[in-house]
Write a structure and sequence with these properties.
This protein has helices spanning about 5-15, 380-385, 480-485, 500, 505-520, and strands at about 25-35, 45-50, 55-60, 65-70, 85, 115-120, 125-130, 140-150, 165-170, 190, 205-210, 215-220, 230-235, 240-245, 245-255, 255-260, 265-270, 275-285, 300-305, 350-355, 355-360, 365-370, 400-405, 410-415, 425, 430-435, 450, 450-455, 460-465, 470-480, 490-495. The longest helix has 14 residues, at about 505-520. It is mainly β and about 525 residues long.
């Protein structure tokens, strides 16, 4: 009997291509170094197919993806190895292509290729992909991944949904990730790859084009490394209909805060006079830098076809609209009821874990339950496939939490660690947010389901629930990339005994570690 991993390439090919300017589910990604100046400041970058943001990859619910990644990196001032994570995809039976270096694979080295093959089983919505090696995605390797549902239950709410209605929000740095200071600070906000920085040149704005009278499904994707963004469009409301792959009851808002790694589908009616309007992505960080709209930073143009193809004549920093109906996470509810795993009371899961996070200023590292995550030299998945029988056999010690199969799990993550609020992401699952940041109550009836959640500030006790039905080692970490690589992470080793029979690897995957080990032993740059 053929296993899923043996069928992926064939079935992905048979699933065909998708239309649009992006890439289909069967494609190649060439990881290259290019000099780029998206905000007018030139620097060397690490990109997929030489562009920023990376090309939109698009497939279909239950479809197969076959993405051949080619490491063509040459500039040794940046990281030369790479790996790609397909953020939000559950990777059932394909944990080995989840992507985080030293958790599920060794990195891919220059002049080598690796085929990421997987099925989007029962998944549709708005996702993204990015490097999961060190801080590499901050150098540019990040883009959107969309999975269409031909039977979308809310397709009657919009007229247009294509690659042109994907909006990526990114922070951009004028220094390399390999040369970042202890406390990195971004230089500019890029909307669909374009933006300005304070005191910089007047580069072109990103234009989002609409035709009056139509309803647009905009897929908003935070591909940020650090800041969240408060997103809004002057004179327009928006209706949230999807959160990170889960359809939600339509919710009308006039602004929303989107944290690193989060995604929303919003329907916007082009019902205003034909004109140009400011589209705003105001960054929010612990340090508070580069926010506001002076020098026309943090804005793009919402352009009605028929209006002059130029920015609004108003100064975006003057008479800034005040949001009166911002998104509140607890107002989001799944369109289709989804029972919360476990009993409807705090601590009512089969497995209850509290994760206390602090920033240890003495060593400059984050600690989760007094332990900083340090990537092992042998990926956790390879340790399991090499004979480890239980979580206590795995390294790094203190950062691996074993989870038995078919159990409800409750995680509580108190807020307040320096550098927050921290958005945390769980690989291999989404989860019910039964207690949100800024809220002391619990919702065990119809809470939002997502895969990235802010843990808020001091006094918050964000609580999430999920069910262990997906064997494998799954990363759980802060998605502020600088914090992840400063130790803010753990691994959930789920159903360890069944991993060898459930996650069948390929010969190419098994060859990654020997190649990588030979590479790092022959060069100073990993």
């Amino acid at each position: 009997m053929l296993h899923l991993s043996s069928l992926v390439f064939l079935l992905a090919t048979l699933s065909g291509c998708v239309s649009g300017s992006g890439l289909g589910p069967v494609t190649d990604l060439k990881i290259v170094n290019e000099v780029l100046a998206p905000d007018g400041y030139s620097r060397i970058t690490t990109l997929a197919n030489g562009v920023f943001p990376a090309p939109v990859i698009r497939g279909t619910k239950n479809g197969f993806f076959s993405i051949n990644v080619h490491d063509q990196l040459k500039n040794d001032s940046l990281d030369l190895a790479t790996s790609i994570h397909w953020h939000g995809l559950f990777q059932r039976h394909t944990n080995y292509v989840d992507g985080p270096s030293f958790v599920t694979q060794c990195p891919l080295i220059p002049d080598e290729s690796f085929l990421y093959g997987f099925q989007a089983l029962d998944q549709s919505g708005t996702y993204w992909y990015h490097s999961h090696f060190r801080n590499q995605y901050c150098d540019g390797l990040r883009g959107a991944l969309i999975i269409d549902d031909p039977d979308d239950p809310q397709k009657n709410l919009y007229d247009v949904d294509n690659d042109d209605t994907v909006i990526t929000l990114a922070d951009w740095y004028h220094y390399l990730s390999t040369e970042a200071p202890a406390v990195p600070s971004f230089n500019s906000t890029l909307i669909n790859g374009q933006g300005r920085y304070l005191g910089g040149p007047a580069v072109d704005f990103a234009f989002v084009n609409v035709k009056q009278g139509l309803r647009y499904r905009f897929r908003l994707v935070s591909i940020s490394c650090d800041p969240s963004f408060v997103f809004s469009i002057d004179s327009h409301n928006m209706t949230v209909i999807e959160v990170e792959g889960t359809n939600v009851e339509p919710l009308l808002v006039d602004s929303l805060q989107i944290f690193v790694g989060q995604r929303y589908s919003v329907v916007i009616c082009a019902d205003q006079p034909i004109d140009n309007y400011w589209l705003r992505a105001n960054p929010v960080t612990a340090g508070g830098g580069n926010s506001g709209f002076n020098d026309s930073i943090n804005v793009g143009v919402f352009h009605y076809i028929g209006a002059p193809e130029k920015p609004p004549t108003t100064d975006p920093a003057v008479n800034v609209p005040v949001s009166v109906n911002p998104l509140v996470e607890t107002d989001l509810h799944p369109l289709i009821p989804s029972p919360v795993p476990g009993k409807p009371t705090p601590g009512g899961a089969d497995i209850n874990i509290n994760l206390q996070v602090v920033l240890n200023l003495t060593v400059g590292l984050f600690q989760v339950n007094n332990v900083s995550f340090e990537p092992p030299t042998v990926p956790v998945l390879l340790q399991i496939l090499s004979g480890a029988q239980k979580a206590s056999d795995l390294v790094p010690a203190g950062s691996i939490y074993g989870l038995d199969p078919n159990k409800s799990v409750e995680l509580t993550i108190p807020g307040g660690a320096l550098g927050g609020p921290h958005p945390v992401h769980l690989h291999g699952h989404n989860f019910h947010v039964v207690r949100s940041a800024g809220n002391a109550s619990y919702n065990f009836d119809n809470p939002v389901i997502r895969d990235v959640v802010s843990i808020g500030n001091t006094g918050d006790d964000v609580t999430i629930r999920f069910f262990t039905d997906n064997p494998g080692p799954w990363f759980f970490h802060c998605h502020i990339d600088w914090h992840l690589n400063a130790g803010f992470a753990v691994v959930f080793a789920e159903d360890v005994p069944d991993v060898p029979s459930q996650d069948i690897t390929t010969a190419a995957w098994r060859n990654l570690c020997p190649l990588y080990n030979k590479f790092i032993n022959g060069t100073q740059t990993g």
